[in-house]
Amino acid sequence: xxxxxxxxxxxxxxxxxxxxxxxxxxGAALLTKSGKVYTGCNIENAAFTPTICAERTAIFKxxxxxxxxxxxxxxxGGREGETAAFTAPCGVxxxxxxxxxxxxxxxxxxxxxxxxSYTLAALFPYSFSGNEFN
Length: 134
Ligand SMILES: [Zn+2]
What we know:
The protein is α+β, with helices and mostly antiparallel strands.
């Protein structure tokens, strides 16, 4: 699986977005260490709070299937009817990514034709780790 292929799967997942309120459509594709890909899209709700982002949809799908080791996450987003624009994960999603992924985890942002690779550490240098409980 190349980075471009993972971006293409995120782009395809973007097509499933349910975003009648923001009209901002996002798709994500999560590559596991075992080579499987879980995709997700943002799913909005009239009450707003139950809305979930594409990244968390993909991660929660994977974890609910027993996967907890991940290689890379591709994210493609943009306004409805427009080509993808550079879309970074929100803070909540960064915290969820940090729950399961190491600091050098690869996150691809952009669109399948033009994207950049970041590490989780670059996008989220300080996270709540759970060690705070000790
Ligand atoms: Zn998010």
